[in-house]
Specification:
CATH topology: Rossmann fold
Helix content: 25-40%
Strand order of the largest sheet: 2-1-3-5-4-6
Radius of gyration: 16 Å
CATH superfamily: HybD-like
Number of helices: 5
Structural class: alpha/beta
Shape: globular
Strand content: 15-25%
Number of domains: 1
Largest sheet: 6 strands, mixed
CATH class: Alpha Beta
Low-confidence stretches: 168-172
Mean pLDDT: 87
Order of helices and strands: EHEHEEHHEHE
CATH architecture: 3-Layer(aba) Sandwich
Length: 183
């Protein structure tokens, strides 16, 4: 099974560096065969380019604002909108500039281009302030990096087991908190 793990975020925006830091941690580990870890930063087009290589599963790691306790790691099975169900104006608003696109927009476009992997999971961490600037993550989000790495390793093992058994682990539209990170 080919699995792409993409760390998304901006290392100059404090907690927004979460996805990139998780990717960097995973890059230092021995991962199952067929797993590729990339840092896509904030460039949506970079994520889309990686997705186009044909993967069986995609794990996107990013900072999120879901009004949960600061540092909470969430496993999210995103509902990906079909762009054909949008009006032309909505399509233009959502897909006009992919250079700084959010992961949701990239997944929408990947679905429209028929390159979206059959299994998609987002691993998010609740940030404190989405507008903060700085090179340091807050302590709860920094602690959540280890929580996210453990969850991703577990998910990779589950996907490998499902691949061996032929089971389908795909879901639709859930947002389950794992646990707040301990600081």
């Amino acid at each position: 099974m080919r699995i792409l793990v993409a760390g998304v975020g901006n290392i100059l925006r404090a907690d927004d560096a979460f996805g990139v830091e998780v990717a960097r941690r995973l890059e230092t580990m021995e991962l199952p065969e067929g797993v590729k870890v990339v840092e896509t930063g904030i460039a949506g087009i970079a994520l889309l380019t990686e997705i186009q290589d044909g993967w069986d599963a995609l794990v996107v790691v990013d900072a999120v604002d879901h009004q949960r306790p600061h540092g909470t790691v969430m496993l999210i099975e995103p509902e990906i909108v079909d762009v054909h169900e949008l009006t032309w104006a909505q399509r233009g608003d959502l897909l006009a500039d992919m250079h700084l696109a959010t992961p949701d927009r990239v997944l929408m476009l990947a679905k429209a281009l028929d390159v979206l992997p059959p299994r998609v999971l987002m691993v998010g961490c609740q940030i404190e302030d989405p507008d903060a600037v700085g090179e340091e993550m807050t302590p709860p989000v920094a602690a959540a990096v280890d929580v996210a790495v453990r969850e991703i390793l577990t998910h990779l093992a589950t996907l490998a087991d499902a691949d061996l058994s032929g089971a389908d682990s795909a879901g639709a539209g859930t947002d389950a908190p794992v646990a707040p990170a301990q600081s």
